[in-house]
């Protein structure tokens, strides 16, 4: 992945989030406070605006995006997405074209930090339920065809519906959260699907 591809990833994530802002808001209205679409739209807009167009350092691009997501998304998801991109960027610091193996190691470090930050594990109906299985897939499967990765993200998102929420505002709904989609898992899907889109170009 080159720096230009990382910039495209941020652009494509912003585009997908903007296109689905209403849906993210509605999901968060059902199980939360209804600001997830707004939060994510504002955060990714800021991340696009601060992109360094000249650097060839992939880590720098991702770290910059993370810093801006951390300060602009707000809510519970701001620190979590901020941590993800900052850690991924730190892992890829100084790299000009890391391969899939390096990207996978970066994902592992970033997802583990996210889990620590949110004191969350997989199975608690959050964005982690999309990031964790996709990272495991990268670690254990031969991802020759990146469509497999998008399918994994899609299948994981589908599964989240059946979970009971244990973290964030959705946890107040207890068993009533079962059968409903988590807003953060949905936005995590858009971010990962955007990655597949730009890596395939
Ligand atoms: P807030 O709920 O504070 O308004 P957002 O609406 O932006 O923040 O984000 C809510 C999403 O954040 C949830 O849908 C869930 O996926 C995720 N989330 C909330 N708390 C946690 C946590 N402790 N660990 C991991 N993810 C979490
Ligand atoms: Mg919310
Ligand atoms: Mg909120």
Automatic annotation (TrEMBL):
<keyword id="KW-0418">Kinase</keyword>
<protein>
    <submittedName>
        <fullName>Dihydroxyacetone kinase subunit L</fullName>
    </submittedName>
</protein>
<dbReference type="Pfam" id="PF02734">
    <property type="entry name" value="Dak2"/>
</dbReference>
<dbReference type="InterPro" id="IPR050861">
    <property type="entry name" value="Dihydroxyacetone_Kinase"/>
</dbReference>
<dbReference type="GO" id="GO:0016301">
    <property type="term" value="F:kinase activity"/>
</dbReference>
<keyword id="KW-0808">Transferase</keyword>
<dbReference type="InterPro" id="IPR012737">
    <property type="entry name" value="DhaK_L_YcgS"/>
</dbReference>
<dbReference type="InterPro" id="IPR036117">
    <property type="entry name" value="DhaL_dom_sf"/>
</dbReference>
<feature type="domain" description="DhaL">
    <location>
        <begin position="4"/>
        <end position="197"/>
    </location>
</feature>
<dbReference type="InterPro" id="IPR004007">
    <property type="entry name" value="DhaL_dom"/>
</dbReference>
């Amino acid at each position: 992945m080159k720096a230009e591809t990382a910039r495209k990833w941020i652009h494509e994530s912003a585009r997908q989030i903007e296109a689905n802002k209403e849906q993210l808001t509605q999901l968060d209205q059902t199980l939360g406070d209804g600001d997830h679409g707004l939060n994510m739209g504002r955060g990714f807009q800021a991340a696009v605006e601060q992109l360094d167009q000249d650097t060839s350092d992939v880590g720098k691009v991702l770290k910059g995006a993370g810093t801006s997501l951390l300060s602009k998304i707000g809510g519970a998801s701001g620190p979590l997405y901020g941590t993800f991109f900052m850690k991924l960027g730190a892992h890829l610091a100084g790299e000009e074209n890391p391969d899939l193996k390096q990207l996978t190691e970066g994902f592992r470090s970033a997802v583990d930090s996210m889990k620590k930050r949110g004191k969350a594990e997989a199975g608690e109906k959050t964005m982690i339920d999309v990031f964790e299985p996709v990272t495991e897939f990268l670690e254990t499967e031969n991802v020759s065809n990146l469509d497999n990765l998008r399918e994994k993200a899609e299948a994981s998102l589908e599964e989240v519906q059946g979970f009971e929420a244990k973290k964030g505002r959705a946890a107040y709904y207890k068993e009533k959260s079962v059968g409903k989609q988590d807003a953060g898992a949905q936005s995590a899907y858009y971010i990962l699907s955007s990655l597949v889109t730009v890596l395939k170009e």
